[in-house]
Design a protein that fits this description.
The protein has helices at 24-29, 50-65, 76-82, 87-92, 108-119, 140-153, 248-261, and strands spanning 18-19, 34-35, 39-44, 70-75, 100-105, 126-132, 157-162, 173-180, 198-206, 214-220, 225-228. By secondary structure, it is α/β, with parallel strands linked by helices. It is 29% helix and 24% strand. The model is unreliable at 232-262 (pLDDT under 50). The termini are far apart. A hairpin with a 4-residue loop joins strand 10 and strand 11. It is built from seven helices and eleven strands.
């Protein structure tokens, strides 16, 4: 038995392993990057931003996983709303063929139990839980169970929420994600196709750290890291979100009229 004198310093806690996202300002705000062995919540800003939130989550999980496999768990409702998980799309974000496992679970309790079981497997690089709408079963107690399992194995859990409002939890960080215009490829690119995916993100909450900062990130699939996504949005070929109640030609006509008036 080891006896610690009341006046002697407590043994240092092991350092937290972190993933450097590539975005220096964001990593600095996080104390060095996203922490492994923790719960991180990611909320879509609007229902229409669900695909962008999923893309950001998949990119971050891919970067954090490294050479280890990724486990992505989906509720049946999320799978029906956001569509089929495409391996080709994951590869476009830098994922390795055969390096991921996707599971669709019919009920919420089964989804939560599968997540805890996945977190107990240290051979995984990351676990993602994707849900749609309110999950009453995912209360503070359930999130604490997630956080404890992640801490014990060192496997990070990314909880993707669409059409849901933040609630008290044991998450280390909480994020909001919205779609952002992508940088167009160079003129030599095929058809002036859009470039790498971009995301507008806000750090809503961080335990024992600053919060409230926002960044625009562009994903580099070769390095599996983010970079600054700020650029001039008026460049030809940029992909810009269009409100559901307005067509793209209407928006283009409005901009043309504004330029003529100027």
């Amino acid at each position: 038995m080891r006896i610690i004198n009341a006046h002697s310093p407590l043994p240092d806690a092991p350092p937290i392993r972190r993933w450097s996202s590539g975005m220096e300002a964001m990593d600095a705000a996080l104390g060095g990057g996203l922490a492994h062995g923790c719960l991180h919540e990611i909320y879509a800003a609007e229902v229409g931003d669900g695909a962008a939130a999923a893309g950001f989550t998949l990119a971050a999980a891919t970067g954090m996983s490294g050479a280890k496999p990724l486990l992505w768990l989906r509720s049946r409702r999320a799978a029906g709303a956001l569509g089929v998980f495409q391996g080709a799309g994951w590869a476009e974000l830098g994922g390795a063929p055969g390096g991921g496992l996707v599971g669709v679970v019919g009920d919420t309790m089964g989804l939560l139990r599968a997540a805890v079981d996945g977190l107990r497997c240290a051979a995984l690089g990351a676990v993602v839980v994707e849900s749609w709408g309110v999950m009453r079963e995912l209360d503070l107690t359930a999130s604490r169970r997630f956080a404890l399992a992640a801490e014990q194995s060192g496997v990070p859990l990314l909880l993707l929420r669409v059409d849901a409002a933040p609630s008290p939890s044991a998450a280390r960080t909480r994020w909001q994600v919205a779609a952002a215009p992508s940088r167009p490829l160079p003129q030599a690119g095929p058809g002036h196709a859009p470039g790498a995916p971009c995301f507008d993100i806000t750090l809503l909450r961080q335990r024992s750290g600053p919060s409230g900062q926002s960044w625009r990130l562009e994903w580099d699939r070769e390095k599996c890291q983010f970079r600054d996504g700020q650029f001039h949005e008026a460049l030809s070929g940029a992909v810009v979100p269009v409100p559901l109640d307005r067509s793209a030609p209407d928006r283009a006509g409005d901009r043309a009229g504004e330029r003529h008036a100027a």
